[in-house]
Amino acid sequence: MYTIEPAGIKDLKALNRLEKVCFEEDRWPVWDLFSVLTVSDVVRLKAVDEAGNMLGFIAGDLRESQRFGWIVTLGVFPEYRRQKIASALLEACENRMSRDRVRLCVRRSNLGALALYEKHGYMQVDVWKKYYVGGEDALVLEKYLS
Ligand SMILES: CC(C)(COP(=O)(O)OP(=O)(O)OC[C@H]1O[C@@H](n2cnc3c(N)ncnc32)[C@H](O)[C@@H]1OP(=O)(O)O)[C@@H](O)C(=O)NCCC(=O)NCCS
Questions:
Q1: 113 CA to middle of ligand 1, Å?
Q2: Distance from the CA of 61 to the CA of which of 2, 69, 98, 99 falls in 20 to 30 A?
């Protein structure tokens, strides 16, 4: 069992562990994690087990544009995947973002994440060539929220 709760600065250590496991060469430095947990106009949510341990995390940034929000990170610890935790985090974040449209970007080769986003109604709207470390393209996906 897990619940979705607001995240905050006390989650920095757990989020740093999650980033290392989920994103390897793309992982954010601690300063960026500190920032995503503290700045205003960011929706930040965690999935936690009954003991309060973080199982997954999502952040949605509302600062860049009034027209759409950006999901800037989403990850679930490997041992808790395929239990709909990312789906629950994504839906909860979308609901709290109060935007007509939400965008995100994902490595072209990240087929698991692409399958997740497709299932949730995201469509490709752009490609950012050689965006990621190592030169891989980013696919930019968008969803209209009703
Ligand atoms: C991508 C990620 C967040 C998915 O988390 P999750 O909690 O396992 O996702 P869910 O259980 O909600 O998956 C829902 C559906 O998405 C699809 N999906 C999710 N992961 C998948 C995978 N690895 N392969 C194929 N389909 C997948 C499936 O359709 C799945 O439904 P099903 O399990 O009934 O088949 C997780 O694998 C992860 O943290 N990966 C590393 C970080 C990452 O790539 N983040 C996204 C960056 S843009």
A1: 5
A2: 2
